[in-house]
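Quick one - first record:
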Amino acid sequence: MNLDNVIAVRANKTVYRDGDYTIKLFNEDVSKADVLNEALNQARIEETGLNIPRVVEVVKLDGKWAIILEYIEGKSLEQLMVENPDKKAEYIDLLVELQMKVHSKKSPLLNKLKDKMNRKISEADLDATTRYELHTRLEGMPKHTKVCHGDFNPSNIIIREDGVPFIIDWAHVTQGNASADVARTYLLFKLAGDDEAAKYYLHTFCKKSDTARQYVEKWMPIVAASQSVKGKPEERELLLSWASVVDYE
């Protein structure tokens, strides 16, 4: 495997391209269980028929675990938004359509979103009263079994040269309530400082899916608390402030 061509560096991994393959090389402190779980989740999503990179193999390189995937040639939706700002609304419309397609799928063996959220709330740097209110709100939310990407944002959509979109990075996928997935995408736009895109995205999703905006907003504090656990230090204060307001505004 050739590790000369770095295409992304993340907190716990470095991503390389080697010809037709993407190599996700994880840091030494990432456990075998986490890497195998990510590969398993990706394989389960392959079975839904969505356009995603296929898992080729899981290997060890220089003592570190790596997932080898198909490389998808193209530009990310995020890159296209920067290059063509006049088409931003059109790209967000596409983002919504792709997310709704993801939510139309089922994968019964995936971990449950509600279980993951409960764990994250327990780990959040919040007082006991706020954690209790968030756990209670989460327990009262309708139980669904839709595929939820968990990090659905424009950087994780690759548009191939022929116009076919592919969805990448399934490390956080679960099954559960789609509105939690929508709340997370909204918060990701907000964290990026793009309030206008966040507003347009939420309006568009709710209109296309016939979902009440207030229903998605009920998930905001829950998702913010969950995101704060692994979020960047500079984002944590903002996320925790959202999590502390149980009636999100």
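second record:
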Amino acid sequence: MKYICEEVIPGKTAADIGTDHGIVPMYLLANGIVPFCIMTDVNKGPILKARDNLFSSGLDASNFRLVLGDGLKVLEPGCASTVIIAGMGGELIQSIILGSPEVSSTVERFVLQPRSKSSVLRTALLEHGYAIVGERLAREGGRICQIITAEHADRTTLTVEQFPGELDLFIPPMLYERKDPLLPEFLKGKKHAAQIIIDGIKDKGGPEMDEKRSFWNSRIEQIDTMLNKL
């Protein structure tokens, strides 16, 4: 949560999509990072829980707004400078951003934390005019989470991530450049996941399975090379 909040544009309104219990907005408001937060969730339960948490924390109700609804569809264009979408699959995050272009076109920065399919999300962002300006890893319980910060490519003044190859979408070079302390553990996790896939298809025959085994064996070799360079 702290790392997500560090990527938010300070002093401007933020929106937390799929806010769950409102923990991120509470941190942003309590620490004076933003003056106002909008929280949305497609389910009523999380909205009610977020409301209870915000009021019990003593935060001023004039500094936040709770909205029941789907993604960015319930927001007005220009209402938030930063949009946070965390704890969802990469494909769902992609659909939320691309499904409401009238709103997403007015957002200055997206702070995204995909639970899965991060490479799919990066590809979609790049194909639709966004630049990735930040990559970092964070520990959440027993897992390593990826936090992606994106801005409109034609508007950003920040250093933009470059992805020269397919593997770079999977394991971004910016993590090396910034010497992310969780990178070794992250790489070992990716290697373990690849090995599980290989083990699951080791007894299956046919050209398609041979190609899949070859791909994942190659991926493990690439990860080992990365680990040796750390």
